[in-house]
């Protein structure tokens, strides 16, 4: 749906104060209908999604009732308890790297917008979503230099179309250790350090525990450097890390600095800035694989603090790369390095699961806009200075596109609004709920009877952000169109904080309008 346009201007000035008052109330009422997006609803739904993706034993307060317990023997074969954590997308593999990125982004959202999430009544749910991941990471880190990085494997998993509750595929677990190092040893410290900040006040003991794991894992990751997919062969065709481990190590160190204030982590970010590509690689995506833009933005924010003055030289270089990223998303670079957009205005990086880049960008833009506002500064792009409001407005336009202001009139956040994808590429959602029908559904039976159906999925996977439209805004709501209809946990995660921020802004505006109206 299109955003409703402002109503026409009020008629010429009235003569009596009463009429003036009445008219101003009417005018104000018309202004407040400008936004037709219910951010509070979007926020609630985005957090529900993480309950759909839960693996393990579900708790008594599980709200997504079409799901049941699953993966209860994960790790058994290897003698470790790996029950829990999240399924990554529409399949049942538990991939450590994207799961950790999901938790990092949820935590960052709470760190930036925890007050807004709390005001909207969703803080408990946000903390639960984070803890479901971090509880699992604690289990998976079984020794100082041992991390179980994956359960299940994509190849056997993809032969089957089954509910997680029926799973018969391999649940083999894969670890990284001194002999087989890997990237998750950089992302998990980031996730656990960020989560330790989130739980500092409400659960100090847990926060401490997370920090301890984060520090130990970081040391391991730094000492035994290596690419994840080099060690865990089975991950190669699914989550091969193109950018390698260096961005994760810088990113992990940055989060550890934020969590501990210990200079050794900041020095790591500074000393390795050049050799690890932190200030050399101008890149226009931020994802489970490539962390540079997020790192660069965090580094830029350090510049305003007096105590970081002696690192000014390197931090400025981080900022210059951060600005390159932000300006290219805003279409404000002049050297052909802007991010493409669809005719409908959506940022377009690539065909497969493009929405993941849109949601991470919306988050980084929102955070940077807040930073500029609080530091009374501007973003400096090739084509000129950009103020915080313009940046936020663009982030908002991407959110509006996601929620339905687009050529398909479709919300890509499932369950939001009146029109959304109904054939999401998701095993559990596309098969009758286990709670309703416990009859076993086999591997190929699922393909025959459920995957190949024309009908909409029997279960609505509320809050999932699907891969989204192609480069000309077209979207085909078909189950086998996994590039567009599959959703991933890291697609929705960055939106949680953004929805809360937009909700609070609108509430503030509503509040000031009713103040004017009643004056
Ligand atoms: C565009 O400019 C930025 C910032 O000066 C630079 O980092 C980037 O490499 C340039 N890109 C191209 C394609 O020239
Ligand atoms: C979307 O809505 C607009 C305005 O109501 C309408 O003109 C357009 O045809 C719709 N597009 C689709 C694909 O339904
Ligand atoms: C702001 O006011 C509009 C119109 O009354 C309402 O629909 C919307 O829910 C309000 N938004 C918030 C965040 O309170």
Structural features:
two-stranded antiparallel ribbon, three-stranded antiparallel β-sheet, mainly alpha, disordered N terminus, 519 residues, binds 2-acetamido-2-deoxy-beta-D-glucopyranose
The arrangement of helices and strands along the chain is: HHEHHEHEHHHHHHHHEEHEEHHHHH
Task: Give me the number of helical elements.
Answer: 19
List the ligand species.
2-acetamido-2-deoxy-beta-D-glucopyranose
State mean pLDDT (0 to 100 scale).
90
Strand order of the largest sheet: 1-2-3
Number of domains: 1
Spans of at least 5 consecutive residues whose pLDDT stays below 50 are 1-16, 26-34
Structural class: mainly alpha
Instruction: Give the C-alpha Rg.
Output: 23 Å
Major sheet attributes? 3 strands, antiparallel
End-to-end Cα distance: 34 Å
Strand content: under 5%
Give me the CATH architecture, please.
Alpha/alpha barrel
CATH C-level label: Mainly Alpha
Helix content: 40-55%
CATH fold-level label: Glycosyltransferase
Shape: globular
Q: Would you report the number of β strands?
A: 7
Protein name: Endoglucanase
Catalytic activity: Endohydrolysis of (1->4)-beta-D-glucosidic linkages in cellulose, lichenin and cereal beta-D-glucans
Signal peptide: 1-36
Active site: 425
């Amino acid at each position: 749906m299109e955003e409703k346009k402002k109503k026409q201007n009020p008629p010429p000035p009235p003569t009596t104060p009463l009429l003036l008052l009445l008219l101003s109330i009417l005018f104000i009422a018309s202004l407040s209908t400008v936004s037709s997006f219910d951010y509070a609803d979007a926020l609630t739904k985005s957090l529900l999604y993480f309950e759909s993706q839960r693996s393990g034993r579900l708790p008594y307060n599980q709200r997504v009732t079409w799901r049941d317990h699953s993966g209860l023997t994960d790790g058994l074969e290897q003698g470790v308890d790996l029950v829990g954590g999240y399924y990554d997308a529409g399949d049942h593999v538990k991939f450590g790297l994207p799961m950790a990125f999901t938790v990092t982004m949820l935590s960052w959202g709470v760190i930036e917008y925890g007050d807004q999430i709390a005001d909207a009544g969703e803080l408990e749910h946000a903390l639960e979503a984070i803890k479901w991941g971090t509880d699992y990471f604690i289990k998976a880190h079984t020794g100082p230099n041992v991390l179980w990085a994956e359960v299940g494997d994509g190849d056997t998993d993809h032969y089957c179309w089954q509910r997680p509750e029926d799973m018969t595929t391999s649940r083999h677990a894969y670890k990284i250790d001194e002999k087989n190092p890997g990237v998750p040893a950089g992302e998990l410290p980031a996730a656990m350090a960020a989560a330790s900040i989130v739980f500092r006040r409400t659960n100090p003991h847990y926060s401490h525990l997370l920090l301890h794991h984060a520090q130990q894992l970081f040391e391991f990751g730094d000492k035994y450097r290596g690419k994840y997919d080099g060690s865990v062969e089975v991950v190669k065709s699914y989550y091969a890390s193109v950018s390698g481990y260096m961005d994760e190590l810088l990113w992990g160190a940055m989060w550890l600095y934020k969590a501990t204030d210990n200079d050794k982590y900041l020095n790591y970010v500074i000393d390795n800035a050049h050799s690890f590509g932190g200030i050399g690689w101008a890149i226009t995506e931020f994802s489970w694989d490539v962390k540079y833009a997020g790192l660069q933005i965090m580094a830029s924010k350090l510049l305003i603090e007096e105590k970081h003055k002696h690192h000014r030289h390197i931090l400025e270089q981080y900022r210059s790369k951060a600005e390159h990223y932000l300006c290219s998303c805003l279409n404000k670079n002049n050297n052909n390095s802007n991010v493409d957009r669809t005719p409908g205005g959506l940022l377009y990086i690539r065909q497969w699961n493009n929405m993941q880049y849109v949601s991470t960008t919306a988050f980084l833009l929102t955070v940077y806009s807040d930073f500029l506002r609080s530091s009374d500064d501007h973003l400096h792009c090739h084509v000129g200075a950009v103020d915080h409001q313009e940046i936020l407005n663009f982030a908002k336009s991407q959110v509006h596109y996601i929620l339905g202001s687009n050529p398909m009139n479709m919300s890509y956040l499932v369950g939001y609004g009146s029109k959304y994808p109904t054939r999401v590429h998701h095993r559990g959602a596309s098969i009758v709920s286990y709670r309703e029908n416990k009859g076993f559904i086999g591997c190929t039976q699922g393909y025959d009877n459920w995957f190949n159906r024309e009908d909409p999925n029997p279960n609505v996977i509320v809050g999932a952000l699907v891969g989204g439209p192609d480069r000309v805004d077209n979207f085909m709501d078909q189950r086998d169109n996994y590039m567009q209809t599959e959703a991933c946990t890291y697609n929705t995660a960055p939106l949680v904080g953004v929805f809360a921020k937009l909700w609070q802004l609108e509430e503030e505006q509503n509040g000031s309008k009713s103040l004017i109206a009643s004056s």
